[in-house]
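Sample 1 of the test manifest.
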Amino acid sequence: MKLGLAQINTTVGDLAGNAAILGEAYRHLCAAGAEIVVFPELALCGYPPRDLVFKTRFVKDTWDATVQLAGSIGEIPAVFGTLVANDSGHGRRVYNGAVYCKHGRILSTARKCLLPTYDVFDEDRYFESAAEPVIVEDLGLKIGITICEDIWTGPLVETSRHYEKDPVASLARRGVDLVINLSASPWQAGKTGVRTPIVERVAKMAEAPCVYCNAVGGNDELIFDGHSMVVGADGTLLAGLAGFAPECAVVDLAAETPALSPRFALDPYEEIHDALVLGLRDYAHKSGFKKAVLGLSGGIDSALTAVLAARALGPENVIGISLPSAISSGHSKSDAAALAKNLGIRYESVAIAGIVDAAEAALEKVFAGTQRDVAEENIQARARGLLLMAVSNKFGALLLTTGNKSEVSVGYCTLYGDMAGGLAVISDLFKMQVYGLSRWINRAGEVIPQNSIEKPPSAELRPGQTDQDSLPPYPVLDEILRRYVELGQSSAEIVAATGYDGATVRDIVRKVDRNEYKRKQAAPGLKISPLAFGVGRRIPIVQKYVP
Amino acid sequence: MKLGLAQINTTVGDLAGNAAILGEAYRHLCAAGAEIVVFPELALCGYPPRDLVFKTRFVKDTWDATVQLAGSIGEIPAVFGTLVANDSGHGRRVYNGAVYCKHGRILSTARKCLLPTYDVFDEDRYFESAAEPVIVEDLGLKIGITICEDIWTGPLVETSRHYEKDPVASLARRGVDLVINLSASPWQAGKTGVRTPIVERVAKMAEAPCVYCNAVGGNDELIFDGHSMVVGADGTLLAGLAGFAPECAVVDLAAETPALSPRFALDPYEEIHDALVLGLRDYAHKSGFKKAVLGLSGGIDSALTAVLAARALGPENVIGISLPSAISSGHSKSDAAALAKNLGIRYESVAIAGIVDAAEAALEKVFAGTQRDVAEENIQARARGLLLMAVSNKFGALLLTTGNKSEVSVGYCTLYGDMAGGLAVISDLFKMQVYGLSRWINRAGEVIPQNSIEKPPSAELRPGQTDQDSLPPYPVLDEILRRYVELGQSSAEIVAATGYDGATVRDIVRKVDRNEYKRKQAAPGLKISPLAFGVGRRIPIVQKYVP
């Protein structure tokens, strides 16, 4: 049996464009000898379509495109994810479904059984769930069709407690010769290692090979990593496809040696690197930007963001702008210039002193009798935001924000200042991960100036200021934040688990809580952690909970 | 039977503060002769708690506060909403519940059956659902306890199709003498008229009186309007409490004349006015702001926002700032000054020319050889944002944004410019509603300068510019937007329904789609429509759907 896996990158809502991608992949895989071709979850309409599902025409248009695409499928069957209307008059109006097509017709329709409604997922909002997965009889085989979450069951999966049914057990009980899973499974660090045992368990339970076809590409905050795979009936991983890149591959179940892509087991920082490059590129290109612009402070965060941008879009499409103030140190400018030179990106320097002086002069009367404070510091940051947005508007370049998760957590960032921009590239990396990834990038030679990595981090909004003046050392800060933000632990639990100073922990926790309003207005950030700021974290802005 | 309704205003997460409010209301109603006291949904922890529910300590702390509050309940029973743990090991870990307390103990625990997961609601994300509502036997009565959505069933309620069970039918079948409903039902224009028949139907189906106790107050985007009520067993509305204000009232089921609050049936614009004043006041006060600041352009949007702010916070706590540019017309300044005088708010004028000139000078080299365009227009708007934020930071005043829903829909607003601010007060009012509400405010004399109402709207970013240069007349625009944004209709459907020019409709629809990225970074906006931008509308930023 030769299985065709179409690990493709589609765009949400782009029905015509996606249909073309599916059609091309189908023809390619047929030519390569596939006997069946499998696509990802909701491949035709893109995942996640979110509230597009509520548009009166969207489901119908998607179905029309489904029928049309089915019409182009020949003797070799294809299974692709699409929206399927629920015409029963009860329940949600749509299923997250798939169609099994052959000879120009839809032979069978599959419907997702388990609807993830946690983290970034809202599927109960959109979809009706099916009682059990469909089994298609074709090619002399009983083929069970599951969709993404349907196989995330069993004791290894914490979220399986949400569900009363187990589609894998249903298939095992009914008996199948092949299990297909169509997925759009967003990546997070370490996800690959979690996912493979899940698929292996499916094959073993069903006593049948399992084809897992995952989407690839960025859609808004989410990065789909591909890493599709085929597992034999005995639970052996037979083939693994590329990570973070499209790949169409034929896997022969009868072949004697496994065909793992060399990119199936990457270094952890290599995975993060590839994920961010893909997420940045797709966010920019899918929203029509060829170019990006960012402020280069000489610090490590903007340097890392610039590297990722240059690799995602090409150095010729990246503009780096140094925006020195009177307070900026000499190395701020020289480190930024050195980085730009290393990357081969366009480099400009625009002074902010004139704007800052003009703003302070304009406010002189209103501010009469007050002390200098954070208001004046923020004017500097917002002058930079204003200038960068002007460059963005003028040249049609996507402005990238450069804040990391540690800063964004505690609010060490200025709304409409350094937070101005269309995409937050590294806002889900704690500062220590920023260091780790930067060192990984420099593993074979200096890309990011060593001085940017080694000097003490500073916002340079006051003379001599460094981050560590008012924050604990980053390894401590990051661990507090990981426990508070990602695990939801209380201050007392963090102190008990780590032995950190209680006052420090409570101070950090307060800072996180108090800055929810800033994150509400942040640019979307690429998700690489189990819990990122963004659609997967929904804390009220106005709330007063203190344990 | 004398029913005590505690229509109170609690804050999300403020367990101690909320417990004090509940305790005081209980004592007050007992003293006023109540034989049972009913509170709103999740009154103790505040609604909606959103992802606070996932914090490891939050559910436990809420339960500890529940037990403590129960300990203070005497002979007169009280029913209040609170989080109830699900210790079964299956399903979500928490119920949206309520406790029936008496003699210092919890006699019974209620659990919500129907979990709204649409619009602004995500209850499937958080809660396990109960099979049917509990019936408590006390006071010689069988008392059925339902929570909010539990009674939104039957043919009048479109969303009832989501559910397989009907808690009201369950109570009717099992037989009850009294139905209690604890609600936190967010307001939207016209909601009161929809809600009363729902409660009347419950009483008729159950053949028992129904006590509907709704929360009041603003929490983030949502405004809870109160309007609690008691309906007799025959479906007659016996009593209605205040709208948009806390009220504790005892309703005697044996009384012969209904006791409707005069505020139970307000003028539609009076309702919107009261809702926005409440929402603005609570957003500011619950997040610790006493003062607000806003830019006064002389136009109707900022004038209306200023009126609402002065009424919510007191005129002495509002700062209005005129930010004229070289392009600003003379009436921009004089209308703004006249408004400030009418309201008695602090008024300042800060010129932006210096900042604009300094920014253009700083960018001269980078912009060499380019044409003047939207980049320069936006510098003006962002100079205003920078100045207003400086005033906000300096004086600890909440910056209010003044954009309306028509502008925000089509992207006639500048990120980090006029969109800068902590709360969008009128972002859910279409422009024609802005006119309507402004005229209502002026019904007994000029508050908003008549010139601000009558002159053609203009962003004044180019000389002589008016909104109507590039948009259809506002009555047409608003109708297109209402159909596209709120009803999800396609361009073709809108043209078919209205007869508007197809090219115009398609142009507006494109503008809405293209500006999703701006709304992603908008300040939270007070919701008054069936579908507001914000948590209830989740359109992908990067998407290419065209019907």
